[in-house]
Amino acid sequence: MARGTASPEIEQLIQLLARLPGLGPRSARRAALDLVKKKEQLLQPLATALATARDTIVTCEACGNIDTVSPCTICRDETRDRTLICVVEEVGDLWALERAGVLQGLYHVLGGTLSPLDGIGPEDLTIGKLVERARDPKVVEILLALNATVEGQSTAHFISDQLADCGVAIYRLAHGVPVGGELDYLDDGTLAAAVKAKKMV
Amino acid sequence: MARGTASPEIEQLIQLLARLPGLGPRSARRAALDLVKKKEQLLQPLATALATARDTIVTCEACGNIDTVSPCTICRDETRDRTLICVVEEVGDLWALERAGVLQGLYHVLGGTLSPLDGIGPEDLTIGKLVERARDPKVVEILLALNATVEGQSTAHFISDQLADCGVAIYRLAHGVPVGGELDYLDDGTLAAAVKAKKMV
Ligand SMILES: [Zn+2]
Ligand SMILES: [Zn+2]
């Protein structure tokens, strides 16, 4: 053990934990200690869960959701409304809408927002695939459930231009979503209200 | 995928991540998503690091430190001052002192503090083993580096009583440590000052 450091194995664990969103260097150190202390109850199950996730989780080729099957369970679910596609930025937004239980249709995960300054253009998102899906005559409605941020709204604007000749009705979420807010931080009631009062673009 | 939930494999991962100190349910969900998104760069290395920690990390039979060898690297280090034993509550405190680089001696990790209300008595900590170590004629000085909390100080008081006839000089950290503060939260300078101005008990 070098002066001032734990063993390399633990240092490596701390470094990786510190890269998780929400954990800084100090809390990563506490988490590593806690893991080692609770070897049977926490470290072992977490190691197994990560290995399982690594070996089983795939991205749905249809909608971009993550699941253990592709197409994902939502895309396979015959009871869902195939005339509606709800477009979200990230999988976390899809989860938020599913938790709220307010969407009967399918989803489309963009994988982010347009950001010319960061070099993120339409080809870096799944916009081409969305246009393809929208051309399917079965699809009647596209709901753009993007974050109410500048990036989210300019991406929504770009997408509705792209979808203009696809023969679909394009909706956005109602302004129940606080301006500047992010979907994943909202309560179920606000999400439900925003879906219910959706406005045609 | 059940309504409102991710796949069982991801739910399991979220549940376990939420048990790490510093991560609540929401940040555990974000962390899980981030892990799945960064499979090669984060999920795979973290799974490996956890498996390595599980298979290699042991508790030092001499001092209670955690390392890949027992006795630990500190206990094996022949350049360290074997006349001094620094007593700490937890391994995290040992790490804090090592990071500050202010201790030339060995350590002794108690594994907590006395807490009669929680049913934690002397036999639940490594106090007996400490008394045994203190009886070694080579040991001249015991530094009680416990937290400046009520529990830490009453445990220190109990230990100095136990060590009374061991023929060692007993020290506590100087009152550079803020009253009510915990070692692991202090900066190196404060720790160094506290060690330097140590007071005889
Ligand atoms: Zn899907
Ligand atoms: Zn040791």
From TrEMBL, chains A, B:
UniProt-listed PROSITE patterns: RECR, TOPRIM
Domain of life from the UniProt record: Bacteria
The Gene Ontology terms for molecular function here are: DNA binding; zinc ion binding
Keyword field contains RNA-binding: no
Q: Which UniProt keywords apply?
A: DNA damage, DNA recombination, DNA repair, Metal-binding, Zinc, Zinc-finger
GO biological process entries = DNA recombination; DNA repair
Give one Pfam hit by family name.
Toprim_4
> Which residue intervals define the domain Toprim in the entry?
83-178
- Zinc finger regions, C4-type: 60-75
Asked whether the keyword Nucleotide-binding is assigned, the reply is no
Functionally, this protein is described as follows: May play a role in DNA repair. It seems to be involved in an RecBC-independent recombinational process of DNA repair. It may act with RecF and RecO.
Report the family membership: Belongs to the RecR family.
Q: Which PANTHER family match?
A: RECOMBINATION PROTEIN RECR
The name under which this protein is listed is: Recombination protein RecR
Tell me the organism: Methyloligella halotolerans
